[in-house]
Amino acid sequence: MKLFYRTNQKLATTINDSGSHSFLSTQSGNHAEIETVANNTLTSILATDNALSVLTAKTCNDEKSLAFSCYGHVANDIPPTLMTLFTGERFDWNIDTYHLGSGRRLYNPKLMRFYSPDQWSPFGRGGLNAYAYCSGDPVNLSDHSGEAGVFNLVARRKNPTISKRPNIERHPIKNVPVSWGEDTIKTFKSSEKISSQKLKSTTPSNSILKPSIQQDVVASPKKTSTSEYSNGNEHIEDTYYKALAFLRKNAEAIKALPADNKRVLEFIKVQNKSKNLRTEIYRSQNSRDDAAQDLAPPKPQ
């Protein structure tokens, strides 16, 4: 029998007198086996676990489930067409052993030991027992090289062909009406892309304000002083509550806009206006309270 391995020590093809056996595998494990005998092809689809052991083998006519002991011995009947079994390694049906490390060492799952000593023993990674499999801990370790066991999570490296993020092609939105509040800005053509620059150029700066609110709130004076509010506290409070209504209505709407957008700048201007009005109302209320205290009759001693 001739064996052909890939650069990552994965078995690729076996050829004998009766036919050939090919293996479809990645770094995450074996996925399929293709057996060819006298121009007849039998394909087996494999399902593996975290340790890369085959749990299910399915062909076009049959499906077989497998169960292994922690050392790799399987109790149920295995179809002889399968060659990769425990931890995804090749099983030799003639002598009931696994060829680990590209055939470097033979491992017998029934005896739970190797036939030859580990070259890393007894002072290296192989441990004190030169014939032990995975240093006596096959539940947490896997030995694919035939030299020293590694943790199963380390052995099952990520498959770059699967874990690699695919390239995402972004296409412009076609013929979607962009709405803002009650006003529809425009419908973009299929060749145009919606961007912040488009929104900036097409969004009306004062379309969200009613004329009455625009007159009282948006047209802010150059200076803020108490002389502006000659109509009394009622006018100040009415303008203040109109500003609050505007802020509450548009607070969520401007979150997605850029900071230099006209609507954002208008929102900040109204917000500052509201703060000034609130301060003015607070001062006027305090002045009324102080005047009431001054006019109150003195308490009898």
From TrEMBL:
Domain of life: Bacteria
Residue ranges, annotated region (Disordered): 280-301
Compositional bias segments (type: Basic and acidic residues): 280-291
Organism name: Pseudomonas putida (Arthrobacter siderocapsulatus)
InterPro entries: Rhs_assc_core (IPR022385)
The protein's name: RHS repeat-associated core domain-containing protein
Alphabetized Gene3D superfamilies for the sequence: RHS repeat-associated core (2.180.10.10)
